[in-house]
Write a structure and sequence with these properties.
Sugar ABC transporter ATP-binding protein; 2 domains; globular; ABC_transporter-like_CS; Rossmann fold; about 500 residues; transport; binds magnesium ion; six-stranded mixed beta sheet; alpha/beta; 16 helices; single chain; ABC_carbohydrate_import_ATPase; AAA+_ATPase; binds adenosine-5'-triphosphate
Length: about 500
């Protein structure tokens, strides 16, 4: 269906692609994996006409093509859902779905026709947003699904999904996997990028691995590929992850005093009478299905919502008055919602990394020498293996590397409480392990960690205990030998059998 070969692309001095080729067959799901910055997005942007290569060729159905732009590629049957969220926030749901011109009747834009076309696709994706709602007001999951819907409405022959699940909760990700398999069943060629390697192995027929702008493993049958060999090919170092402990975390060495506490907290519509503490040195997981309330706990701790009743206490003994007050009281919030993560894209990496600690020092404080800040930022970035010069702008980084910069920013701030929401979404396996090691290290130094994650393996690997939420209430918690993925999944979905606490 599509053959690309010899693609070359540079960004300034950076070689993003160095002679890359890929072959997509009709009816197959072809996965593309690689470390952050390996060149995956660059490759798919070229194949979908968003970016022009400096060299190489693309053929569609054996006929050579040269895309003049994304719209041209779309007209030829190549649709892309890109890594960055591309909804037009001020347009309605319907307007978002037909970016290349709405269907018309007698020369007039036909809303009825738009709805007729969109309805079956939206329902296949399992969402039902009000057609005239402003897209920017929809939850992130719906916005992500909206983009997928938009691509499908182009009735493509080739569908490219660049990390479509990095903004989706588990249930929506599973729904999407089903849709992708069905589309392949109908004869589409699907190119699928994801850092969730288990997901990749479940969904893909073939896998291509990119490293440093080159194909290191072309189109292997997924059935013949082991997870270990995939990781080794991605990282280029066999056994690179062996050092990362997958074992259960040790009990907190010397639990400090209570660092954060919630007492009888009620937030209308989100939390009902929730009491919870995290001691210094403890890593406490927060789990639940969408809307269960676990994320509201993070919002309350970070000063983004005020409880209607009950109280929240930060390490300084006071309640968070605002998001800013929470930050200056030592709470760091890291979100994997990279689609709105608040980096200053036009500013160099070092300024992004050191931004929070500046805030903490207050306006009257001394100004650390710039060279020292740059050095400090460089140290954090090297530790997280960020590909990019510390003085370069954050906007030029690959998606996963941007997420690492967000993490580095909070590490630099030396917080006493870490509030993490899906912190490793979109981050490659190597950096994920590194991040986990860092979180364990911070806990060992006495920081309290609260973490929510849609990646249950992450909770099981990292947490001392995981508190499970349903409909705004705590329904129980898991620790020790009972803290396993299956137990967690059952508890989130069905609650706890009997009085197990
Ligand atoms: N617009 C740009 N300006 C400058 N450099 C860029 C730009 N886009 C990509 N690059 C660089 O090209 C390289 C490949 O980036 P790309 O986005 O393709 O990586 P990726 O494999 O998609 O990574 P990720 O998993 O983090 O999304 C990186 O070094 C990146 O910094
Ligand atoms: Mg990318």
């Amino acid at each position: 269906m599509l053959v690309a070969s010899g693609l070359v692309k540079h960004y300034g001095g950076v070689t993003a692609l160095d002679g890359v080729g890929i072959t997509l067959d009709a009816g197959e799901v072809h996965a593309l994996v690689g470390e952050n910055g390996a060149g995956k997005s660059t490759l798919v942007k070229i194949v979908s006409g968003v970016v022009r290569p400096e060299g190489g060729t693309i053929a569609l159905d054996r006929a050579p093509v040269r895309f003049a732009g994304a719209r041209h590629a779309a007209a030829q049957g190549v649709a892309i859902v890109s890594q960055e969220l591309m909804t037009y926030d001020d347009l309605t749901v319907l307007e978002n779905l037909f970016p290349y011109g709405a269907p018309r009747r007698r020369g007039l834009v036909s809303t009825r026709e738009m709805r007729r076309l969109a309805r079956p696709v939206l329902s296949e994706l399992g969402i039902d947003p009000p057609p005239h709602a402003r897209a920017g007001d929809l939850p992130l999951t719906d916005r992500q699904m909206l983009e997928i819907c938009r691509a499908l409405l182009q009735e493509p022959r080739v569908l490219i999904l660049d990390e479509p699940t990095s903004a989706l909760p588990r249930d929506a990700a599973e729904r999407l996997a089903g849709v992708v398999r069905r589309l392949a069943g109908r004869g589409l060629a699907v190119l699928y990028i994801s850092h969730f390697l288990e997901e990749v192995m479940r969904i893909a027929d073939r896998v291509t691995v990119l490293r440093d702008g080159r194909v290191v493993r072309p189109g292997a049958e997924a059935a013949d590929v082991s997870l270990d060999s995939l990781v080794a090919a991605m990282l280029g170092e066999p056994g690179a992850l062996a050092a990362a402990p997958r074992a259960m975390p040790a009990a907190p060495r010397s639990p400090g005093g209570v660092a954060v506490s919630l007492t009888g907290v009620t937030v209308p519509g989100r939390l009902r009478d929730v009491s919870l503490t995290a001691a210094g040195g403890e890593i406490v997981g927060l789990a639940g299905l969408q809307g269960a309330g676990h994320l509201a706990v993070l919002d309350a701790v970070c000063g983004r919502v005020r409880p209607a009743s009950g109280s929240v206490r930060l390490p300084d003994g006071r309640a968070p008055r605002s998001a800013r007050h929470a930050v200056t009281s030592g709470v760091a919030f890291v979100s994997g919602d990279r689609k709105g993560r608040g980096l200053m894209l036009d500013k160099p990496l070092w300024e992004n990394v050191t931004a929070v600690s500046w805030l903490g020092q207050g306006r009257g404080g001394f100004l650390p020498r710039r060279a020292r800040l740059v050095d400090r930022a460089r140290g954090h970035l090297e530790r997280l293996r960020v590909r990019g010069d510390v003085r370069a702008g954050a906007g030029g980084l690959s998606g996963g590397n941007q997420q690492k910069v967000v993490l580095a920013k909070w590490l630099d701030a030396a917080p006493s409480v870490l509030a993490l929401d899906d912190p490793t979404r979109g981050v490659d396996v190597g950096a994920r392990a590194e991040l986990h090691a860092i979180v364990r290290g911070l806990a060992a130094e006495g920081k309290a960690v609260l973490i929510a994650s849609s990646d249950l393996a992450e909770l099981v690997e990292l947490c001392h205990r995981v508190v499970v939420f349903q409909r705004g209430r705590i329904v129980g918690s898991l620790a020790g030998a009972r803290l396993t993925e299956p137990e967690l999944s059952v508890a989130m979905n069905a609650g706890f059998a009997g009085p197990a606490r």
